[in-house]
Design a protein that fits this description.
The structure holds 2 protein chains of 2 kinds. By secondary structure, chain A is an all-alpha fold. Chain A is about 75% helix and about 0% strand. In chain A, helix 6 (about 115-130) crosses helix 9 (about 160-180). By secondary structure, chain B is α+β, with helices and mostly antiparallel strands. In chain B, helix 1 packs parallel to helix 3 and helix 5 crosses helix 6. The longest helix of chain B has 22 residues, at about 35-55. The chains are: A mainly alpha, B alpha+beta.
Chain lengths: ~180, ~180
């Protein structure tokens, strides 16, 4: 049976680490996936996701449950990724061989997709990585994670109007970069 | 970047791109407006691979869970308790082990849909007798008071049988009910 997140959170807050462990199992993919989509480097994404989950455990006493646990976790991961990027001042490598995340994909022949499709997907990942973080984060949450506009606004702690503005700028940038790639 | 003019019909490119991104483009208008169609086409060139990227499954590496749980467990003080009898040499059991026995024991009680257990260490000094707390999801329809008492007796009996520790205090919290 599926115990609701809110029940697991309450139990974890009472000190039941087993309940927190269940939350980790439920949300580890989400934490890692959004970090990977924001940072595009598997090792950095794993670090950020790990730090975020441990931060979530420590911050549990202050979590009042006025948002879903998954939204709260998104916020922690996004902040971690932003911190990591600022600290490292990541310079985006132009060489596609350097994008280690793509090395984790199965060979093109096994997936039925064309080489061109894979190149286009890599190109859009590169374009995303070139965006400033404040434009990349709303795009990743909205377009890759499927969050609603309201949830994106809540995760980033910004008004919806600001989010829509950043999405418009990000989309404009992304489309422009993909035109140049063609 | 090539900044073309806005479409002649007066719609903004930003709004058009938002429509494409949200999958609610006005097909009737696009059929008649060449400049909007051009914007739509160039937007789709970015959006098609973006949708493919969104669909790529991503799973967390196995090491992630391990490292998180290791750090969480390390931050939690663990007590060990001396077990009676035997020797030469002492046998101790950790609070975590007691909690595991308690959880498995409680989960098997009819009327319990799910259970977690922890050793209660807040306010309990070093060598004091162990206290275990079980939090459980009861099946709908169970008599909650009777269920809690049954869980307490069952957990105590299982702890006594497996460790020799008798009369371990077992606090029961029924904090969830599962229907059907």
């Amino acid at each position: 049976m599926h115990t609701e997140d809110a029940v697991l959170v309450r139990r974890a807050q009472a000190g039941h680490d087993e309940a927190f462990e269940e939350l980790v199992v439920r949300y580890r993919d989400q934490a890692y996936r959004v970090a990977l989509r924001l940072l595009d480097r598997p090792a950095d994404a794993e670090d950020a996701a790990q730090e975020a989950l441990v931060t979530a455990w420590r911050a549990l006493p202050g979590f009042r449950g006025d948002s879903a646990f998954s939204s709260w976790l998104y916020r922690i991961v996004v902040n971690r990724c932003h911190d990591l990027q600022r600290r490292q001042r990541l310079v985006r490598p132009v060489d596609p061989q350097d994008a280690a995340a793509s090395a984790l994909l199965p060979p093109v022949a096994d997936t039925g997709e064309t080489v061109e499709t894979r190149h286009r997907v890599q190109a859009v990942r590169d374009a995303l990585a070139r965006l400033p973080f404040e434009l990349r984060a709303p795009l990743v949450l909205r377009e890759l994670e499927g969050c609603s506009y309201a949830e994106v606004a809540h995760v980033l702690g910004l008004p919806q109007a600001t989010i829509r503005g950043r999405l418009a700028r990000g989309r404009r940038e992304l489309v422009g970069q993909m035109q140049e790639w063609v | 970047m090539n900044e073309q003019q806005e479409p002649v019909c007066g719609r903004s490119k930003d709004d058009l791109r938002a429509d494409i991104a949200d999958g609610r483009e006005d097909r009737a208008h696009l059929a008649t407006c060449a400049s909007c169609r051009a914007v739509a086409d160039e937007t789709r060139q970015a959006w098609t691979p973006l949708v493919l990227l969104a669909r790529q499954p991503v799973v967390a590496p196995a090491g992630l869970t391990r490292s998180v749980l290791r750090r969480v467990r390390a931050a939690r003080p663990t007590a060990t308790h001396l077990l009676p009898g035997g020797g030469p040499g002492s046998t101790r059991v950790s609070g975590r082990a007691l909690a595991r026995v308690a959880r498995l024991s409680a989960t098997a009680v009819p009327g319990v849909a799910a259970a977690v257990a922890r050793e209660v260490t807040d306010g309990v000094p070093g060598e004091a007798a162990p206290v275990v707390e079980v939090a459980l999801t009861a099946r709908y329809g169970a008599d909650l008071q009777g269920l809690a008492a049954l869980v307490r007796r069952t957990v105590q009996a299982d702890l006594a049988a497996s460790t020799g520790l008798h009369g371990v205090r077992v606090d029961v919290v029924v904090d969830d009910v599962h229907g059907g």
